[in-house]
Specification:
- The chain has ten helices and eleven strands.
- By secondary structure, the protein is an alpha/beta fold.
- Strands 2-1-3-4 form a four-stranded parallel β-sheet, with helices on both faces. The chain has a three-stranded parallel β-sheet with strand order 7-9-8. A two-stranded antiparallel ribbon has the order 5-6.
- The chain starts with 12 loop residues before the first helix and ends with a helix.
- The N terminus is likely disordered.
Length: 325
């Protein structure tokens, strides 16, 4: 009876050493090394869901970040569908800056990404409902709010209020600092400068809309509720949060009456969404049309090259429509 132990093929010493080195390399790559989430030039790779988040990431991150926007210029953010490559990139990013509830496809992909450095804009500021529909009838939420026929739940358009946008900026700053602590001081400096500029923009709106003939303006979709509330205005939206939704005949009838009651002389449309409904309403009312940009993206048609340029153009459009002196 053979009691000797079974023989196994001998592994050369050099192969064992190579395997050990590879194992160490694998462990170091998975242990959250300094290069994780960074580009070859050492910049923090940040993924932003759409333009207002991209703008914050670039302004706060400065030279220390490389920012990728999931939503291409001219694409309606609400309708965004992600490619497999975009979905995969979320796991490897150094940080993600997004706004929960605006883009369902992005929300789902981020939830599955496992990324530890995620800045959700809505978590950094308070949100509100700006209008509801009960039994098919619109019920206003009070004066100086956004009134829309079909909007339900929290209004996500916080970036159109400079004060709320500044609060979001402070939250994004903390996330970037956690993802790249070596540049925390620079992120803080950039944030302080941005918050100061947003404060100046808020003052421009406050002063610029003081002496006005009307408080009411009509827009394509319910994007300007926070802005309206901040400056004591009333937004009447043709459709709800989704700019592609079609208004009912009852809503169009209501808008005709509202326009007459509040002496509305302008119907606003936007550059990304289809302006057909807004133009039809304006023609029926015998009033003019103009652009009020919800800043969901910057294109060649935008009245400004960045957030501040477009917001100042929006202020000028509101001043003209509301008859400011």
């Amino acid at each position: 009876m053979n009691t000797s132990r079974p023989r196994f093929p001998r592994i050369p010493t050099a192969a064992v050493a190579t395997a050990a080195v590879l194992g160490l390399l694998t462990l170091s790559a998975c242990s959250g090394s300094d290069s994780a989430g960074k580009s070859t030039d050492g910049k923090l790779n940040v993924i932003a869901s759409f333009y207002p988040m991209e703008f914050l990431a670039k302004e706060i991150g400065g030279d220390h970040v490389s920012v990728t926007n999931l939503t291409k210029p001219g694409v309606e953010p609400h309708d965004l569908e992600l490619t497999p490559k975009q979905t995969g990139s979320l796991s490897d990013a150094g940080a993600i800056v997004y706004l929960k509830g605006l883009q369902p496809a992005v929300d789902a992909a981020i939830k599955q990404s496992g990324n530890k450095h995620i800045a959700d804009a809505l978590s950094f500021t308070s949100t509100e409902e700006h209008g509801t529909e009960v039994d098919g009838h619109h019920h206003a939420t009070g004066d100086n709010h956004s009134h829309s026929e079909s909007e339900k739940g929290a209004d996500p358009h916080v970036w159109l209020d400079p004060v709320k946008y500044a609060e979001v900026a402070k939250g994004v700053n903390k996330t970037l600092a956690e993802a790249d602590p070596d540049h925390k001081a620079d992120f803080q400096k950039n944030t302080d400068e941005l918050v100061k500029k947003l404060g100046a923009l808020d003052k421009k709106f406050t002063d610029g809309l003081k002496n006005r003939a009307s408080d009411t303006f009509i827009t394509t979709h319910a994007a300007f509720g926070y802005l309206a509330e901040r400056y004591g205005l009333t937004e009447e939206a043709i459709s709800g949060v989704d700019p592609e939704s079609e208004p009912s005949a009852a809503r169009m009838k209501d808008l005709h009456q509202l326009a007459k009651d509040h002496h509305v002389g302008t119907v606003f449309f936007e550059t990304i969404a289809n302006p057909a409904t807004a133009r039809t309403l304006a023609k029926d009312l015998g009033v003019t049309t103009d652009v009020l940009d919800p800043l969901e993206g910057i294109t060649d048609k935008s009245r400004g090259g960045d957030y501040f340029g477009v917001m100042e153009a929006n202020l000028a459009a509101l001043q003209k429509a509301l008859g400011t002196k």
